[in-house]
Amino acid sequence: MATATTPLRSTSPPQFKGSRRPRLPPALALIIYPITLVVGSIYSVVSPTARHPRTFETASPLTPSLASDLNLSTEPHPSPVNYFARKNNIFNLYFVKIGWVWITVTFLALLLTQPTYTKAPSGLRSKRTAHALVRYSIVTAAWFLTTQWFFGPAVIDRTFVLTGGKCDNLPPVRASPDTWEELKVILTAAACKAAGGAWKGGHDVSGHVFMLVLGSAFLVFEAVGASRCYLGAAAGADGKAKDDEGEEQTTIDDTTINPLPALALRFAWVVAGLSWWMLFMTAIFFHTWLEKLSGLVISLAVIYVTYLLPQSLLPWRNIVGIPGL
Ligand SMILES: CCCCCCCCCCCCCCCC(=O)SCCNC(=O)CCNC(=O)[C@H](O)C(C)(C)COP(=O)(O)O
Ligand SMILES: Nc1ncnc2c1ncn2[C@@H]1O[C@H](COP(=O)(O)O)[C@@H](OP(=O)(O)O)[C@H]1O
Where are the domains of the chain? Predict the structure, then answer.
């Protein structure tokens, strides 16, 4: 039996041949994201119902405390508006605003159920799990640094201030900062809005676009990679199949007895699908073209480094691995 590391020790250019090519979504599949943003942005221009919602969102009576935590207005909106154009829509509050929790839970569900991790011989299992955790750490660190904290304000907030944005309309007492908490008010969108200010004037990279593209692409690459076991098993005449490195994979019988792997895969597709839908809503109702584009570019760069670069750069592949391989 070939060892798991045999192909990786090769000194020849790290290309995959024939059946050894990893079953991952092709890079071209990522085109769905720019297409979604372009279609949404065009729709926002041509449709009279797709009015910019920034000034008239309301808090739902069902979610008042979370809405106030998120600094959403509780004033009634002056005119009817598409449900998804409201910042307090249920999917924004309970799905996107805590989006990384959903991504993390879904990823862990894959890790704990997919035969590519649970049924592999122990050495291979540890290697695949470690690689998957490295990939998760990369995308999570990228999300964290871009949207939450980058040695102080997040990358998105720093970009906004560097491009001339600031926290306007602050009450005079908050306008001259002494402490870090007060400084945060003029340096971060969240603290500015929480203090009653208006975050305006700069280039506001769309955090929604960034997180929804990064999270959904991450889950799709992980899910498709992990589902190689099913595909391999279906191809095997005796119900067993060998993966690209000669390891025996799970059988069709295994997957029918235990429904969890298929359920976890379906869950991943649901979370990725809902992320895509919210991305489409963001494209229609929020932000400028350029702000959506910058969110997209940052997230695709992270996906490129995590999933596409390892396919051609052997030393990097040894560190991050390839899902299911
Ligand atoms: C030197 C390198 C240092 C690297 C540091 C890496 C640190 C990694 C931290 C790891 C944290 C892991 C947490 C995993 C578990 C969680 O998911 S808990 C956090 C849950 N929070 C969210 O899910 C928030 C998601 N929301 C957002 O990110 C934003 O709301 C938004 C979607 C970007 C929109 O932004 P708005 O400004 O609100 O519009
Ligand atoms: N699909 C969506 N549904 C609801 N609100 C959205 C949204 N996309 C963006 N927003 C809102 O638009 C603002 C800018 O989003 P972002 O910069 O993350 O793309 C945020 O408002 P708040 O900051 O007031 O919550 C965010 O909640």
Answer: 34-50+91-151+206-320
